[in-house]
Amino acid sequence: MQNRVVLAKYEGNKDISLEELSGLSDEDLLELKDLVDTDITSISIQIDDAKAIAASGGEYADVGWYRRAVTAKKLKGRLSQRIQTELSNKKKRRKEKHGEGTTELFIRGLFLAMDEHLSSELKDRIVSDARAYQLANSQ
Questions:
Q1: Which range marks the domain in which residue 87 is found?
Q2: Stated pTM of the model
Q3: Domain total for the chain?
């Protein structure tokens, strides 16, 4: 992970702000999410093991430990959701930023190809049909 400050905060059980998450690259976010999800799985296994021991007539887990484990699992689950939301928001921003430009480039390239390979009459018919389609589906 490139951003060691966020990793150190996570390992030290410190809160990671939304601003800190938004400053991470997609690669760092995915790496952090993988670490968080691995921790959640580990905690879940420990809780399930403690429940199984208690159910089989063995010792009950320490109440303080159990509460801390459940709380840690919830907090890590929320962090995992925040990371996923940030990844989704970044993807959405990239689409908004590059999506229209890519469409415009495609349309420009399409018109250049039509100019080169089609008669002007056929090109005009295609453009007219496309505009009619656009009008019919934009309402």
A1: 4-137
A2: 0.67
A3: 1
